[in-house]
Design a protein that fits this description.
Blueprint lengths: L6 E7 L3 H12 L6 E8 L5 H6 L7 E5 L4 H11 L4 E4 L4 E3 L3 H12 L3 E10 L5 E5 L7 H11 L10 E3 L1 H6 L10 H12 L3 E12 L9 H15 L2 H21 L3 H14 L20 H9 L2 H10 L5
Parallel strand pairs: 1-2, 1-4, 2-3, 6-9
Antiparallel strand pairs: 4-8, 5-9, 6-7, 6-8
Helix pairs in contact: 5-7, 5-9, 8-9, 9-10, 10-11
Length: 318
């Protein structure tokens, strides 16, 4: 009788007591049964400890530490793990019941040590699906690594990754100095050394509150993503990587009616790389960001009448 590998499920939580129970329950109902659950309480001041302690009788392990950030919490969970594989689940996310089983089957099928999956963004108030991201498997490691370097897209959400624990010992743990992009930085290190494959299905629900958007601070995103680009992205991909960063920041600023900064970021993006950033993907199989830089720049500069004329000849998404 084959013994299935054990998966250590690390759930970092900082003041997520309101949602933590749902996350734990989504693990307890997994069809794949050889797992352990480790809750890392990153200095919560709410009822996180009380919620976690309700599950101790079910074998859930609880670890409390002073607040150090999600990277440190995940690292603590990895070090406490007793399984052959580690899976992460943020306390405000949920797994579908067959998530681990499908990923561990894929791990065996592809003969790899890292498996990702698709996910859905869900409004946790209404339960409605806001969007769905499912990426196809890349033709090779270099293609995935190149896309990862340029687009700053992690292979999946952090809650969708299952990783052989030995890989952290060779590639290193999460960088605890990064407040943003700590997940992208470690996936870069892992993708440089190891193959990453996907279960091409949405197996995770990321719960968001659309009534209270949690915007990342633009200046922090620029600071930390630039740091990762400088330290981790090879020179041959760096110009496109900077261009993708500033295109994203420019679009974000314009969406917040910050026209001046938005135009500045778009111009910086074009200066870094004036041509196509991502490979052609007519079927949108790889979900590259759709940021029409020149269109957004013209739109931010031109009067409304000119925009209507441009759109009549060359329609583009808003």
């Amino acid at each position: 009788m084959d013994v299935k590998p054990r998966v250590s499920v690390v759930i970092p939580s900082f003041n997520m007591g309101e949602l933590l129970s749902d996350a734990i329950e989504s693990v307890l109902i997994q069809t794949y049964k050889n797992y352990e659950i480790i809750i890392v309480d990153d200095g919560s001041t709410d009822n996180t400890r009380k919620i976690a302690e309700k599950y101790l009788a079910k074998g859930v392990r609880y670890h409390h530490q002073k607040n150090q950030g999600v990277a440190a919490a995940r690292n603590a969970g990895i070090r406490l793990s007793k399984g052959e594989f580690v899976a992460f689940l943020d306390a405000d996310d949920l797994w579908l019941p067959d998530k681990l089983e499908l990923q561990m089957n894929a791990m065996h099928e592809f003969n790899v040590g890292i498996i990702a999956c698709g996910y859905r963004l869900v409004d946790y108030v209404s339960g409605s699906c806001l969007s769905e991201i499912v990426r196809k498997n890349y033709r090779g490691r270099e293609e995935l690594y190149k896309t990862l370097c340029i687009s700053q897209i992690i292979p999946a959400c952090s809650s969708g990754m299952v990783i052989k624990i030995d890989y952290f010992r060779t590639a290193g743990y999460f960088n605890e100095t990064l407040k943003i992009a700590e997940d992208w930085e470690i996936w870069l290190r892992l993708a440089e050394k190891y193959d990453i494959k996907f279960v091409e299905r949405p197996l995770v629900q990321l719960r968001v509150n659309i009534e209270k958007p949690n915007y990342r601070v633009i200046s922090n995103e620029e600071l930390y993503v630039r740091q990762v680009i400088k330290e981790r992205v090879p020179l041959k991909y760096r110009s496109k990587s900077y261009a993708a960063l500033y295109a994203r920041l420019g679009r974000s600023c314009l969406a917040r009616w910050d026209r001046g900064r938005g135009m500045g970021y778009l111009l910086r993006s074009i200066l870094w790389h004036p041509f196509r950033i991502y490979p052609r993907d007519s079927k949108n199989e790889y979900k590259y960001p759709q940021i029409w830089r020149y269109y957004l720049l013209i739109k931010s500069l031109a009067p409304g009448t000119l925009i209507k004329i441009i759109k009549s000849f060359y329609p583009l998404p808003q």
